[in-house]
Amino acid sequence: MASSHSPARRAGFTALLALCLGATLAFLAIPLVALFAEVPLGDVPGLLGDPAVRQTLEVTARTNAIANVLILAFGTPAAYFLATRHFPGRALVITLVELPLVLPPAVAGIGLLAAFGAGGLLGDDLARSGIVLPFTEWAVVLAVTFVASPFYIRQAITSFEGVDGVLTDAARTLGAGPSRTFLRVALPLAAGGLVAGWVLAFARGIGEFGATIVFAGNVRGETQTVTLAIYEQLESNFDIALAISILLVVLSGTVLLSYKLLSTWRRSSSTSPSPFARTGSSSA
Amino acid sequence: MLRAVAGLRRPESGRIACDGRVWFDAHTGVDLPPEDRSVGLVFQEYALFPHMTVRANIAFGGRRRVDDLLERFRISHLADERPLAISGGERQRVALARAVAREPAVLLLDEPLAALDAHTRTVVRDELQDLLTELPIPALLVTHDFRDATALADRIGVILDGRLLQLGTAQELVARPANAFVATFTGGNLLTGQAQPLPGGGCEVRLESGQLIRSDESAEGRVGVAVYPWEVGVAHAAPPDGHLNALPGTIHGLAPEGGRIRLRIGDLTAECSPDEAARLALADGNRVYATFTPADTRLVP
Q: Which residues contact A222 (CB under 8 A, 6 or more apart)?
C-alpha cells in the first residue's frame, strides 16, 4: 500500500530508531558518568597513591604482562597452524580453544584448581618437584592466560585466514621457506587483526575476576589484582573502589581508542577483518 | 600447470625437470618445495606484497641487483611506492623484476595480460615482448589469447582439458592445425561436412549447408575444413574458375581492425585491405561470395 511508504511513516520509523539509540546510550553512559560524579577527580591521584592500591596495581601489571607474553608467544604460532593447515579434528581443536570464552570464569578457576591444586591431577607431582601454584602470583598468571587467550587466538586464526594465499605462494616461489614466509608476509599482513585480538585479550585479562579469586585467592601484595581490590574495598573504602574503577575506565578507553586510531592509520596495507566498528568514513 | 612447475600444486603423475635437475617425479617420489626450485613465477594478479614498497618487493627474492633491475624495468621512480599506488602495467613490470631478481632457471607467466584493460594490454604486450627477448631465461607463459601467444612465444602448446593437443610455432599451428579446436583457436573458420575422395587426388566436401567445396587434401567421411580469414576473398559474382571454392552469403559485422577490414560473410570470417573493400563497395547487407582456393583448405578431424 502506498500509505505504508508515506513520509510520515518513514519519519516515525527513524524516530523509533533514534529513541532506541538514545535509551541504549543513556543506559551505557549513566554508570560511567556516575563513577566520575561520585568522587572528586582531584582526589583520585591521592586515593590511588595508597600503598594498598599501589600493590594491587603492581600485581596486576606484572601478572598481566607475563600472561600477555605467553598468549602472544604460544597463541600466534598456534593460530597460524590452525589457519593454514587442514587436518581431521580441526573443528574440534578450534572449539576447544574457544571454550574458555563461554565457560563461567568460576568454573575455569575450579578447573585450574583441580589440575594444579593439592591433590589435583598434576598438583601433587608438581608439589613433589617443589612447584606450588595455587594462591601464588603464578596462579593469577595462569587464570588470566586461561580466560583471555581465546580472545586473541580466535581473532588471530581469522586474521591469518584472511591473508591471501597467493601472496604466501609468491613468497615461496621467491625462495622463502615456510618460516620466512610466516615472518615476512603472513605476520605483517595479519598484524592489524592480531593487534585487535590482543586488545580484546588484554582487556579481558585486566578485568579477570572469577577464575582468579577461585584459583589464586585474594591475598594483598601476592594475588590481589585491581578487580579483586575493588571487590575488597567495596566494604571498607568505597572511594578507593571508585578511584580504581575510574583508572580502569580511562585505561580501557585509551586502549580501545588507540587501537581504532592505529587501525585507521594502517588500513591501507591491512587485509585483516576487525572486531570493532570503524571510526570515521572509510574510503577503502 | 604453472603451479605444478613451481611446486605449489602436486601433480598426480609425471615428471618435472629443469636443466637436468629433477624437481618432481611421481614415480620416484621426488617433490622439491617451491623455495628449492628455481622458478620466477609472475602471478595473474601479480601478487605483489601490499605491505612492502616496490623496492622491498623486488629485494624479497634476491637483494643483489635491485637498483639494476629498477633501472632495467624502468621503475626506478616507483621504488618507494606501495603496489596499490601504481598502475596495472607498472605492477606487471614490478612483478617481472621481482621474479627475475632471483635469477631463476625458468620464468613462469600466468596470464600476464589478463588483469589489464584493452588499451594498456597492447602497450604492455609490446613491452613484455621486448623484455622476454632480452632476458636470457626460458619462459613458460599461459594465455587464453592466441594473439598474445603469437606475440610473446617462440613455440605454442595448445592445451584443452589438461591434454596437449599440439606443440609448434605459430606458423606451424596455422599451417597444420592438428584438430578443429586448434584451427578455431588460431583464428580459423571451421566448416564441417562429409568428404569424398576424388580420383585425381584431393577430395570434395559436402558441407552441412548442402554446398560442395574442394580441398587439395585427401580425406573420407566426416571432416572439419579450416580456412583462415586472410585466405578468404570477396567477389560479387560466382567466379568462373570452377576450381575456386565460392560460398554465397550476406555481409555483416564489417569493421576495420588493425589496418585491415574484417567482415562476416554468412558463417565465414574474411579479411581484406581497405582499398579492396572500397573498390568492391562492400557494406553490411550486400549479397556476395566468399572465395578460397582448394589449396588453402586444411582438413582436420
A: A59, A135, A136, A137
**What single-letter DSSP state applies at residue B116?**
S
Partner residue opposite B49 with nearest CB, options A172, A177, A185: A185
pLDDT, one tens digit per residue, over B32-89 is 888 888 888 999 889 999 999 999 999 998 766 888 889 888 889 998 999 989 988 8
Distance from CA of B57 to the nearest CA of A (A): 10
> Helix (H, G, I), strand (E, B), or coil: what is residue A279?
coil
Q: Is B73 exposed, middle or buried, given 0-12, 13-18 or 19+ CB atoms closer than 10 A?
A: buried
User: What's the pLDDT score for residue B61?
Assistant: 84
Q: What is the DSSP letter of B296?
A: G
> What are the distances in angstroms from CA B144 to CA A84, B120, B160, B188?
31, 17, 11, 16
* CA separation for the pair B179, B166 (Å, rounded): 9
Chain-wide mean pLDDT for chain A?
88
Mutate to test the interface with A, among B16, B18, B23, B35 (most CBs of A within 10 A): B35
Instruction: Say if residue A4's pLDDT is above 80.
Output: no
Cα distance between residue A243 and residue A250, in whole Å: 11
First and final C-alpha spacing in chain B: 26
pLDDT in tens, A171-181: 999 999 999 99
Determine whether the interchain pair B47/A166 forms a contact, defined as Cβ–Cβ distance below 8 Å: yes
Residue of B nearest to A176 (CA): B35
- Minimum distance, in Å, between the CA of residue A171 and any CA atom of chain B: 8
Interface test with A, best of B37, B51, B63, B82 (most A CBs within 10 A): B51
Q: What is the pLDDT, as a whole number, of residue A109? A: 94
Residue range A227-270, pLDDT digits in tens = 999 998 888 888 889 999 999 999 989 888 887 887 776 554 44
Interchain pair A173, B51: CB under 8 A: no
Helices A137-161 and A51-84 cross at an angle (nearest 10°) of 40
